[in-house]
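Lab notebook, bench 4. Still working through the backlog of constructs that have no structural model yet. Next entry is a single chain of 337 residues. Request: give me the structure tokens for it.
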Amino acid sequence: MEKFFFNIMKIYIDYKFTPNPWGGGNQFLKALRRELFRINKYTNFISRANTIIVNSHHFSYKLFFLYLIKSNLKIIHRIDGPISFTRNKKFSHIDKLIYSFSKNFSDGVIFQSNWSKNKNYKLGFEKKIKSTIINNAPDKNIFNKKKNIKKSHKIKIISTSWSSNLKKGFKYLKYLDDNLNFNKFEITFVGNCPIKFKNIITINAVKSKKLAKILNRNNFFLTASRNDPCSNSLLEALHCGLYPIYLDSGGHNELVKNQGIKFRSRKELLNKIKRIKKPKNYITRKNLLSDINQVKNQYLKFIRLTNTNKPNLILRFYKITNFLITLYYIKLKNWLL
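Model written out:
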């Protein structure tokens, strides 16, 4: 029966996609959806799905109706954060909402990194729910290595971020802007930046295809984001062949696969960049990275191995009612604050 279910599996990702430059979750889920479409495992209609992937705290109310009427519906919860770590403690109510949703409705949970899994468990995430760790991956048709680097006497470093959250490492960029020798180095930032730089080249957020072209003009990728569970911007750069310079924080260590230049402070970052001599000596081993096809297969395998054991109709109705009361209480409480 399980094998039969897998063969007719139809997946729906309960998320509002945007074609515009957006956060890492949007970019990854678009790539995953495209791969699922390619093998006829995806449906555009939530009512026709027998497996629904919910991303963090993003879900539609149609999901609860389907949970009520479909006893065999599988709900897979993709978790990031904790949100109170990636943003700040003011968002701890979102973590509580995520944990409540997962405890009540999830048949399986996908963490994006071991770091994220451990941090969420420490904050009270339900450990009894079947879980796995699957890193993200970018669209391989867009983010791949091309020979676009023109000969230059400068060593080229790039950093990207759709979010303007200060935890994305802007204080490190500002420190480099003030102290690095820009006769030897060139730094480009692409995205939404809350700081004006004197020397760093700033480009507004662009769509993926244009971003990939810009990435391929550079030698190194700098990420100084703090408590980032699975940085999509870092993965995009790695798949373009850029050598990583990364802050020892969050899931960065897991993504770079024991390669790259690691730093823990602004001074250490500056000193390590100064030591860079010949960019051609720094090579990213892409064979260590999972591409989107492999990630898609990991998702399918986990879904197949996840069992659904829904309670009876009355208990399902109770769970939905209880969760929605909690949801509106949290919203009202934070609105009043």
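Notes after review: The CA atoms of residues 115 and 173 lie 24 Å apart. The longest helix spans residues 313-336. Flag for follow-up if needed.
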